[in-house]
Design goal:
This protein is mostly helical. Helix content is about 95%, strand content about 0%.
Length: about 45
């Protein structure tokens, strides 16, 4: 494995990690929205 290959592999790992974080954030947002909707339903 050359130095370039190592850098490329690291970059792919970072991109994969960023994708995982983005997925996690969107699922957290979805949960927060559902909780908000449930709270609003309580007041209705």
């Amino acid at each position: 494995m050359t130095q370039m290959d190592g850098a490329y592999a690291d970059e792919k790992a970072v991109v994969k990690h960023i994708d995982e974080i983005a997925e996690l954030e969107s699922s957290i947002d979805a949960m927060a929205e559902r909780k908000l909707v449930m709270k609003l339903d309580d007041f209705a």
